[in-house]
UniProtKB/TrEMBL annotation:
Domain Phospholipase/carboxylesterase/thioesterase, residue spans: 18-232
Keyword Plastid: no
Gene name of the record: LOC106179992
Lineage of source species: Eukaryota, Metazoa, Spiralia, Lophotrochozoa, Brachiopoda
GO molecular function: carboxylic ester hydrolase activity; palmitoyl-(protein) hydrolase activity
UniProt similarity note: Belongs to the AB hydrolase superfamily. AB hydrolase 2 family.
Name under which the protein is recorded: palmitoyl-protein hydrolase
Recorded GO CC terms: cytoplasm
Species name: Lingula anatina (Brachiopod)
InterPro entries: AB_hydrolase_fold, LYPA1-2/EST-like, PLipase/COase/thioEstase
Length: 239
């Protein structure tokens, strides 16, 4: 969700919003990254609005980090909460690896802290919407390949992404991927998402892909329900 609202107070750095599981103790964790211009509060509220209730799990903690404030080139250099900068919203330009690596470094620290607190990577899922989904792809297929799964909603990778380059030389097991996109999306074109899915599948990623006719750059109730089921299959309630 691309929000350009001058009244919104943007956080100065990556700041996680934690939603506790409904059981006394959590045995799994979902990291979910918002889209460009949004915040942790924004994506949490959006999931609630789409489903009509709080998006929670009995056994899984959800961590919604907020991206740092940085100049964003597609907004003519205005400050926005974005995980990385880019020349334009398109897969046909080079990635801004400097800002990508800055966010990867900080988010890896959050993931490592969760592991230190007793949650193994095999019970952690990385996901996100739009730019947040791209962030999950970078983390899951470059740094945290032991996670239980990766989710990318309305998200794409650039044609020459370092994710693709790295996977060409990686013959180990990879986390499964849940992807979904709408055919009416005018910001992140459906073909960009489908091409990303095709490329990752060719490089050995087991993918689940859902196409939603007439869906714009947004979440849908059906999409979130399918995502929820997929998460529960990857990280079941074991207590």
């Amino acid at each position: 969700m691309w929000i350009m609202c001058a009244s919104r107070i943007l956080p100065p750095k990556i700041a996680p919003l934690v939603v506790s599981q409904t059981k006394p103790k959590h045995t799994g964790t979902l990291f979910f990254f918002h889209g460009s211009g949004d915040t942790s509060d924004g994506i949490k509220l959006w999931l609630k609005e789409v489903t009509g209730k709080e998006f929670v799990f009995p056994h899984m903690k959800i961590i919604y980090p907020s991206a740092p404030v940085r100049p964003y080139t597609p907004m003519l250099g205005q400050l926005s909460t974005v995980w990385f900068d880019r020349k334009q919203i398109s897969p046909f330009v080079p990635e801004d690896t400097k800002t990508l690596e800055e966010s990867c470094s900080e988010l890896n620290k959050l993931i490592e802290t969760e592991v230190e607190n007793g949650i193994p990577l095999e019970r952690i899922i990385l996901g996100g919407f739009s730019m947040g989904g791209a962030m999950a792809l970078h983390l899951g297929y470059r740094y945290q390949k032991q996670v239980a799964g990766v989710i990318a909603l309305s998200s794409f990778l650039n044609q020459q992404s370092v994710v693709y380059e790295g996977l060409k030389h990686d013959f180990g097991p990879l986390p499964p991927l849940f992807q979904a996109a709408g055919t009416a999306d005018s910001l992140v074109l459906f073909d960009w998402v489908a091409t990303t899915n095709k490329e990752l599948s060719a490089l050995g990623v087991q993918t689940t892909f859902h196409k939603f006719d007439n869906l714009c750059h947004e979440l849908s109730r059906e999409e979130v329900q399918l995502m929820r089921k997929w998460i529960e299959e990857r990280v079941p309630d074991d207590r």
